[in-house]
Amino acid sequence: MSIFLLPSQIAGVIGAWGPIGVAVVGLTSLSVALCFAELASRFEGTGGPYLYTRHAFGDFFGFEVGWMQWFTRAASQSAVMAGTAVALGYYWPAIDAGWRRALLIVALSAAHTWINIRGIRQGAWVINALTIAKLMPLAIFIIVGVWYVEPARLTRLPPLTVRQALGGALLLIFMYGGYEVVPVPGGETIDPRRDVPFALVATILSVTAVMTLAQAVAQGVLPDLSRHSTPVADAAAVFLGAGGALLVGAGSIVSMTGNNAGQVLTGARMIFALAEHGQLPVWFGRVHPRYRTPANAVLFTSAVALALALSGSFAKLAVVAAVARLIMYAGCAAAVLKVRRRPDGLRPATFVIPLGPVVPIVAMIVSIAVAFGATREQLLGGLIALTGGATLFVVRKVALNRNARRPYFHR
Q1: What pLDDT score was predicted for residue 217?
Q2: pTM above 0.85?
Q3: How far apart are CA 94 and CA 97, in angstroms?
Q4: Residue 70: which of 49, 87, 55 has the closest Cα?
Q5: Which residues, 6 or more positions from 17, have their beta carbon under 8 angstroms from its beta carbon?
Q6: Which of 47, 98, 244, 373 has the fewest beta carbons under 10 Å from its own?
Q7: What ranges do the domains of the chain cover?
């Protein structure tokens, strides 16, 4: 989804370094994905990062990672809804401002909420159909566009400050984000200890290749990429004409719609899982009496995402989602080192990262370093989300302890 809009944002931060930055962050993300892969090879349950960090560091740390995993889904959902308004603005500029923008975002949120309350099968069908429909326009853009690239626009590299590099990396964390959901349904796959590590590594490598090529084409075709709010569609218009721009633009909207459906589905599932483990009030774990879906979790996730989308822009929301992801990434990298030392109750890893502790330590350092690319406001947003989760955890814990101490009387 983000590949259709973020190339201009990336160019605005790191200029002609864009394609190199995309490739470097993709390979760096591989260090985190390898940590996920080793952990996944030891576990067969459902939960992904929440499951791993809970086993390594206890209930509270695991809950906070699970909570931020949910918040990442909600923040990403809000960014995608804001981005959909930007993409539609290519054809109808008025839709990206004022009451029309608000109405579009509300309509998108309501539609995805309704689909996911009706049933997981319906939501999954929508996601699969839209995912397939988005791939062809992107493939055409890359295959045709490489012949129109001006090499000078990719080779004239201006000086780059550390602050610029970290800011660009933070945006790219959002672009690559999403692979952390691959291990979540591990307990429902046939052989998760074999399949999940392979899926993680294959996902990162393939996405890195596609996104690097797309960034290079957009930057090599448009002389002023940072000024384009719909960079891929604008670049396609140069070498494919109006019809090509329409095809790519429609593909971006389809992509965002499918991504949005997935955010609701996975986000609600995460918060529902926390409630099932007794770490959130039972309200979050209630299911719809007719459709048997986690309706309250879907409603809560959609409401938070809607509020964020109405209050922020695509770029700002993307960074907020990226900051939240970094907590998950650092937590899982640390969990690898902890589980290696004390693999109590776990099966032997079927996949072990080479070079001993080097890769997990690199993943932790990168996750922490990239966070310094965020503004004080963005870091504050992440802190508020963490504090909100901690408050819910403590409230639930107090309520459980109170109920445990309450005497039972039999009449």
Answers
A1: 93
A2: no
A3: 6
A4: 49
A5: 157, 158, 160, 168
A6: 98
A7: 2-400
